Amino acid sequence: MTTATAPTAGAVAPRQHAPVRRPSMLRLTVVELRKLVDTRAGRWLLITIGLVAAVIVTLQLIYAKDVEQTFVNFFVPSLLPVGVLLPVLGILSITSEWSQRTALTTYALVPRRERVVAAKLIAVMLTALASVLASLAVAAVGTLVASATGGAGTWGMDASLIVNAVILQVTSVLMGAAFGLLLLNPPLAIVGYLLLPTLWGVLGEMVRPLRGPSEWLDTSKTMEPLFSSDAVTGEQWGRMAVSLLVWMVLPLAAGLVRTLRREVS
Amino acid sequence: MITVENLTKRYGPHPAVDDVSFQCEPGTVTGFLGPNGAGKSTTMRMICGLTAPTAGRATVSGRAYRELPNPGREVGVLLDASAQHAGRTGREALTLSAYTMGLDRREVAAKLDLVGLNAVAAKRRVRAYSLGMRQRLGLAHALLGNPRVLILDEPANGLDPEGIFWMRGLLRDFADRGGTVLLSSHLLREVEAVADRLVVIGGGRIVAQGNKNELLAGDGTVVRARDGAALRRALEAAGLSAADSSEGLLVQADAEAVGQAAADAGVALAELRPAGGGGLEQLFLTLTAGESTKEAVR
After folding, report:
1. What pLDDT score does A2 carry?
2. Contact list, B147 vs chain A (CB under 8 Å)
3. Which residue in A104, A113, A114 has the most chain B C-beta atoms within 10 A of its own C-beta, making it the best mutation to test that interface?
4. How far apart are CA A182 and CA B21, in angstroms?
5. What is the pLDDT of residue B193?
6. Total domains present in chain A
7. Chain-wide mean pLDDT for chain B?
8. Which is more confidently placed, A113 or B219?
């Protein structure tokens, strides 16, 4: 072989290289985090999530009574709209690989698909954690503004509320990711995620025999205690666990199996 | 080195790929030929672990693709140039893969440069790329990890003639330096210029494979002279059998022997050339005709 002669051609010359290691989970997670922000759509989704929290706080500064302008009252209401958008992020992170057909590249570089899925789940969970920090930050700004403009501006809050917020947002984003894994199609997964639990909630209200089970299976009901400052009881944790088993763990497991087996083309 | 052993893929009762075996050696370019829907892409996806085979196995550098620790550093894969996120820039698409493989950032710029995507093109989103540009980006992606094996599905698709010529040079050079190349095409003439070996597939089955020269030659030499009778006598005198054909006399010997026989007899030739791969071309045309009818009906 005449490797050393032509410098331009050398760029494509196959080399004998040292045994290469497989990419670490950290590396794969960084890649997945980068994928969340390197397209216009992804960036805007994240910006929207931040803006929504800011808008909620601003509205309260304008319309809420002065005594209600406290840190807790700024923080808690911002969780709900963010919690609606986070699952969309989870869904898109998983399904865009298929809708944009990048799965062909992704899984050719990392044929152990479960590692890519794990990296994606870690990446969206980190984003959920960041969203809680963002909610705390805008609530803090709101509280500062409130105390300057005659609002209560009190800071007191149970630490348990932060833990609850983390649980709420992380489970939201994971539920979205689970639906994405299971359905592997963005519109289908988004509609499915938004519609199914709501439909279940409506049915639970309308059909009397379903009212009992819906206390345990309707996530909008079982997750409600997380928003309150009162301690969550054992039974409430139990209901939450059952509803998450059905809406998060089962779709995650079934979706993982489907993703691992699916033909990439 | 790519080894494919008895690969089979069935979708329901319909076999898309049926008992396909072949080998691609280092230092060679293997042309994987077949009409659309013959099973080329399915075979390539099975080699790359993207489609699970119904039966059989494939290895790259001696290991199943899924067992390769960091496949991008061993095999460069281009299966579909359009399979890139439309909203990412060309540079970003390569950067993501370079980081996944643990490569230096400089490789991205080097490979973009190599395939002729300039800084302006690299900053544009893939959505705005022409098919030819996507194909170049796909090649840059395949070459990114400095692999020893290349698996390319219809890489010439969408390239202009200059681009096709450039790509042939690139692949030839890659193989001459000890690399293994498997490239598919539905055009015989397209791979003929660069491939050493040919594997022809039709309806999921291998219909011919072997050394390109063996497959394309063996059909003799076409020779023509103004004085046809004199030429015939000259060939007979040299002990060469000649048959009439529409283009002239078809002789079962190489051009050198035929030319020498004519020169010895003092016959001026009007034409002397190899008869070309009539057999393979005919086979290929039959395959293509049959398959396209099937596709039209489907």
Report:
1. 41
2. 14
3. A104
4. 35
5. 87
6. 1
7. 89
8. A113
